[in-house]
Amino acid sequence: MAPDFPWYTEVADGNLDQGDILPGCPAGYLPLNWDPNSTDQEFEIDVLDLVVLTQACDLAHDKTEYVVCCPVFPHSHIDEEYAGRSKKYINGQKDKILQGTCPGYAMIAAHDGEPPRPISVVSFRHVFSIPKSFLQAVAESRHLRLLPPYREHISQGFARFFMRVGLPKPIPSFRA
User: Fold this and answer.
1) pLDDT one-digit tens code per residue, 162-171
2) Contact, 120 vs 97, CB < 8 A?
3) Around Cβ 69, how many Cβ atoms within 10 Å?
4) How far is 81 from 142, CA to CA, in rounded Å?
5) What is the pTM of this model?
6) Cβ contacts of 63-67, under 8 Å, gap ≥ 24
7) H-assigned helices in 1-86
8) What would the pLDDT profile of 72-106 be if each residue is shown by its tens digit?
9) pLDDT tens string 37-64
């Protein structure tokens, strides 16, 4: 039997680390309809659960003032995203995320302790850069921290998403 490797530890110490999942964190962005010629612009802010992706060594050694974060949401969000599709299709999409074959997403396990967390999906399609000092204040409240090797697994998924290269002329399939 394989040894138990817990996914999370529960923390509330204000020390920010890679893999911290910060619930209810404000994150701002320019709206899609932003008009560069207008002087009257709105900056939108969503309140999201965010996972810290900046390298642990950069955070620990004060090598950055801004921290890269991505949103985390319950896997049921996929049901809403594909509303109207069959349950089989939706579960197939979740399985693709689980297997790492759906670029832009990664799945993380549920947590039954405090704070509780359902099986969740990390979206690499929305990236936020947030001041480290702000996130350290948020990290003082109780939250979850992904443990190795799971935090590295999520970081690797993030890296794979951004390092993809679309070839103009692919090599033909051998199944043809």
Assistant:
1) 898 888 888 8
2) no
3) 24
4) 29
5) 0.88
6) 64/132, 65/131, 65/132, 65/133, 66/129, 66/130, 66/131, 66/132, 67/16, 67/129, 67/130, 67/131, 67/132, 67/135
7) 56-60, 76-81
8) 999 999 999 999 999 999 999 999 999 989 889 99
9) 888 878 889 999 999 999 999 999 999 9
Tokens 């993809």 found at: 164
Q: What is the rounded end-to-end Cα distance, in angstroms, of the chain?
A: 41
Ramachandran area for residue 148 (φ above 0: left; ψ -120 to 50: alpha; else beta): beta
Q: Indicate the DSSP class of residue 167.
A: -
Strands (E), 19-172: 20-29, 44-52, 66-74, 105-108, 120-123, 128-131, 143-146
Residues in the chain: 176
What is the amino acid identity at position 141?
S
10-30+42-163: what CATH class? Answer: mainly beta
